[in-house]
Design brief:
Shape: elongated
Radius of gyration: 17 Å
Helix content: 55-70%
Length: 55
């Protein structure tokens, strides 16, 4: 029904960074370039930057 949207999705999903991110979101531990040093829970980021903004 939406061929341009389908084409865009195929292009996006073929991007290695997108494939890596989707695998991480699915709980996998994909091999990457080594640039990703780990993950931080969103609540921890919010707490850390909220505290920094108050000082």
């Amino acid at each position: 029904a939406y061929p341009k949207l389908a084409g865009l999705r195929l292009r996006i999903e073929s991007d290695p960074a997108v494939r890596y991110a989707l695998a991480v979101e699915d709980g996998e531990q994909p091999a990457g370039s080594g640039a990703c040093l780990g993950h931080v829970p969103l609540t921890e980021v919010i707490d850390r930057f909220a505290a920094a903004a108050k000082s």
